[in-house]
Amino acid sequence: MLFHGALTALVTPFRNGQIDEEAFRNFIEWQIQEGIDGLVPCGTTGEAATMSLEEQGRVIRICVEQANKRVPVLAGAGSNNTSEAIELAKLAKKAQADGILLITPYYNKPTHNGLIAHFSAVANAVDIPIVLYNVPGRTSLNMRVKTIKAIVDTIPNVVGIKEATGDVVQASEVTEFCMKKDFSLLSGDDFTVLPLLSVGGCGAISVVSNIMPAKMAALCAAFKEKDLATALKIHIELQAVIRGMFIETNPIPVKTALALMGKIPTAEFRLPLVPLEEQSLVALTSLLKTQGLI
Fold it and tell me: Annotated catalytic, 162?
């Protein structure tokens, strides 16, 4: 199984409007030292939606170079424009990423057949492992199990799905109807990592692991080792931190937390994202202090 355990949906450090390469490399190095199982650049948390194609290609290249085969890199390559998704997939392939994460097209709200056609077009254009990304909270479109099954059955290089619905019933149905050998069911909702693991998941693509990579990796490892008591203990311990990471729109809180922790130099965002509101900043700072993170 190519993608399993805890993978971090990486933030992208910016400085004066530009990608801060040094900060990004240092951050990746810290993630690997902390025991993370994989890296996901250019996702929602990485603010890919406000980066150019060239910038996204650069971020993926930096991540692949810094990881240096120590952990797999699953590069975000999604778009609501199929031709753009193909170009991003080509950039990821050129950078030698281990796979690509493809979100369901947002805003367009494609039909069952449209989704199949979209993912098929990318798969036919670029020979690279694909992980589907279902996040209706961002896209206003829930990819139903019937559609997931059709895609998995007809596109050989689809090797997994990031399920960010928070719906354990749907995750159970993915396990029931869509699982095949070496298929990765990954949680995309930090609140329900443990429940999803319990119905057939093999890991998570996590926001909170930006600030607590060792903890999320330990949760996934404990479950894999059938140490359910430890997995549950970590799951409960993480809940308050996860709530803090979503006190405002992701990635505003997590990027702010990383800056407060000294893991990135600044919490700089690209519009339309703006810095954390003062009241939220006070609450987040208090949480990080309580957790011993600052």
Answer: yes
Q: Which residues contact 80 (CB under 8 A, 6 or more apart)?
A: 105, 106, 107, 108
Residues 6 or more apart in contact with residue 274 via CB below 8 angstroms: 252
Q: Per the CATH hierarchy, to which homologous superfamily does domain 5-226 belong?
A: Aldolase class I (3.20.20.70)
Q: Residue 222: pLDDT above 90?
A: yes
Provide, rounded to the nearest whole percent, the portion of the chain with pLDDT above 90.
96
Of the listed 90, 93, 162, 215, which one is catalytic? 162
**Which residue in the list 106, 107, 109, 133 is annotated as catalytic?**
133
CB atoms within 10 A of CB 146: 12
| Banded model confidence at residue 126, pLDDT cuts 50, 70, 90 | very high
CA dist., res. 139 & res. 132, Å (int): 13
Name the nearest CA neighbour of 221 among 76, 36, 77, 23. 36
Predicted TM-score (pTM) of the model is: 0.96
- Among 22-36, 129-143, 219-233, the minimum mean pLDDT is found in 129-143
Tokens of residue 184, six digits: 């990765």
